[in-house]
Write a structure and sequence with these properties.
Elements lengths: L5 H21 L5 H5 L1 E2 L10 H4 L7 H22 L1 H34 L8 H6 L2 H4 L3 E2 L3 H14 L4 E2 L8 E2 H18 L7 H20 L10 H26 L8 H25 L6 H11 L1
Antiparallel strand pairs: 1-2, 3-4
Helix pairs in contact: 1-4, 4-5, 4-8, 5-8, 5-10, 8-9, 8-10, 9-10, 11-12, 12-13
Length: 307
């Protein structure tokens, strides 16, 4: 537990504590899942705060075990790459997005059920039918961190698409990008092929959808996509920029010199490019695994490059 990154560790602790609290309060006749779970937005028990609280509640032991195992397995890696602030923002945003998509799916289900039972039912009748169906609508409650977890799973697949993974019961390793695609297809088919299921398949897809949009935005807007980066990441980004500027400046100075023994422009530029590529590789390694993961040779090269 001491080697788990801060945000992932705290998320694990909070979820476990809330699950234990649910069990303790249930023995006193208080249903925390009903209070903090996400209700359908037309239900009388609905509250906007539930969009945040529902992702820390779980229905049973199997539910929380699967979610926390997945959070530990993939969340540690994603947090180490992004840093705590960006990672936490992404996690919460995926959870909220999953809740919103789930409510949209619930509205579609509500509308279809009402249209089947009420002749000439239309949008103008939604509010009245909802008022008369509060007992049923209040039972539509969603709990679980699955939406946010599926967002983390997608992030891992997009950050390390070529990473090979052994997934039981497959006998051969599978690349992370195909692993994520398989999960997405399974959830989509489950959402379209089942009705009245206790599993919020659309919430899972919603978490992946919101995660995909955010990652694509950050990649297409590197300036604005720096939100939430750790100070260490920003420091090494600045070091990389300074290195590139100094490299170009020294290249210009070398071309203007008069030493006949200097190397040709072709050789000089090739050597500088190789050095810059090596520094880029070291900086990327620091972003992924931290400064302590560098070898002594890599630390020396990074130090020399920063002079």
């Amino acid at each position: 537990m001491f080697r788990i990154p801060t945000i992932t560790k705290n998320l694990l602790i909070i979820n476990v504590l809330m699950f234990l609290a649910t069990w303790v309060f249930a023995r006193q006749g208080v249903d925390l899942n009903n209070m903090l779970g996400l209700h359908f937005f037309l239900a009388s028990d609905f509250s906007l705060l539930q969009l945040f609280t529902y992702m820390f509640m779980h229905a049973n032991f199997t539910h929380i075990l699967f979610n926390m195992f997945t959070l530990w397995m993939f969340g540690c890696v994603v947090e180490n790459v992004w840093g705590p602030r960006k990672y936490l923002f992404y996690y919460i945003a995926c959870g909220v997005g999953a809740g919103l998509i789930q409510m949209v799916a619930q509205f579609g289900e509500f509308y279809l059920l009402a249209a089947e039972q009420i002749p000439s039912f239309g949008m103008s009748d939604v509010a009245e039918v909802a008022r008369n169906s509060q007992y049923v609508l209040n039972a539509w409650t969603t709990v679980g961190a699955s939406g946010a977890i599926y967002g983390i799973l997608l992030a891992f697949g997009m950050l390390f698409p070529e990473q090979r993974m052994f997934i039981f019961p497959l006998p051969v390793p599978i690349k992370a990008k195909w692993f994520v695609c398989i999960f997405a297809v399974i959830e989509l088919l489950s959402a379209l092929g089942t009705s009245g299921s206790n599993v919020a398949h659309f919430a899972h897809l919603g978490g992946m959808l919101f995660g995909y949009v955010m990652i694509r935005y950050w990649r297409n807007n590197p300036g604005g996509g720096g939100y939430g980066r750790s100070r260490g990441q920003q420091f090494f980004d600045r070091m990389k920029d300074n290195w590139e500027r100094r490299s170009h400046r020294r290249a210009d100075d070398a071309r203007g010199g008069c030493d006949p023994r200097r190397e040709s422009d072709w050789d000089y530029n090739a050597r500088r490019k190789a050095e810059q590529d090596e520094i880029d590789r070291i900086l990327d390694k620091v972003r992924r695994s931290g400064y302590d993961s560098l070898t002594e040779e890599e630390k020396r090269k990074l130090f020399d490059g920063g002079k």
